[in-house]
Amino acid sequence: MPDSRSRRAADLDAADPLASSRALFVGCDEVAGLEATPTTDVVSYLDGNSLGRPLKSVGPLLAAFVDDAWGDRLIRGWDEEWMQLPTVIGDELAAAALGAAPGQTLIGDSTTVLLYKLLRAAVAARPGRTEIVVDTDNFPTDRYLVEGIARERGLTVRWVTTTPDSGLSAELLAAALSDRTAVVLVSHVAYRSGFLADLPELTRLSHEAGALIVADLCHSVGSVPLELDAWGVDIAVGCTYKYLNGGPGSPAFVFVRADLQAELQQPIQGWLGHAEPFAMGPSYQPAHGMRRFQSGTPPVVGMLAMREMIALIASVGIRTVRQKSVALTEFAIGFADEVLAPLGVEVTSPRDAAWRGGHITLDHPQFKRVVAELWQGGVIPDFRAPFGLRVGLSPLSTSFAEVAVGLDAVRDALTR
To answer: Enzyme class, one word (predicted)?
Structure first.
């Protein structure tokens, strides 16, 4: 790597107030990200927006859970703690990263299942309205769910055409809304481009039309500050294995605005969403508050890892995390302009940080091949068809030097 870029990365790392947090993560013992540690061949991890690194505290925590809470307390653990964890950890997440008061967030199920349940409930809460609004480049799960629910309920999907380098803007949404709109589904940060939607304005427009809004927070929670209460968001769902570092398949979360909870009837009426689950009664009576959106047994083990990351975000502050995130993406874009653009690479993410989340996408016709080669060499971005190489930058575990090493490797792969 040329000395100028190396020095620039080193200077940014030296000035980074979050630099010390890297030592808390598995595989990040190296100071600058230039050497693989004895436990991993990874020299540059640029996929934190898909799967976050584990915190070092998680391994001992899970081992202690097996020996103590599970192994010793056994089934007593349900009464002593586990049954309350979905709402307890939900409230911890709400305080640290969602800008939401207690009693509105629940951990459990996958993103897909929670989106299905809440989209179905939202549609039912707007009888007589016949359309669901979603954009054409939203994440596949979101689009597929909307298509399925529309088919089940005899509704129409109102598609808003967006491009792979953008997302759902206020202007596009306003043109799609009408008195037929039941629900708007939007990704706060677009999975492909990193476009950061104006969620407060999209919420205001949806409410003006009499519709409910459901926000997919998968690519923003833990990276971008959220103010769900202040913005008046109705419903939000997000995963916990990206910037919340909950681990592969860790359970998702759902937020439902307090004054809307009693109005919504969730469609998967499991026993633990019942007002008195252990009464084993003959008919379903929904629980009060967020527990009504629970269906089955809480995924206790899957919730434990994310709790560590939520606590770390709370300790450093989500706005400090965002400042580092912006600095990382600015550095990556500048690097791409200087080094990769002459090789035909195009930045297809917003250049204005106000409209950009925590990752950027670079396009080149050779990137499918390049990403496969990079993985073999311990440089880990990800690929999104047709030509996108995503650079996912997790602020608490990613160094500027790590980014520079990874993007230099991209240059080398393109010139081979």
So the answer is: hydrolase
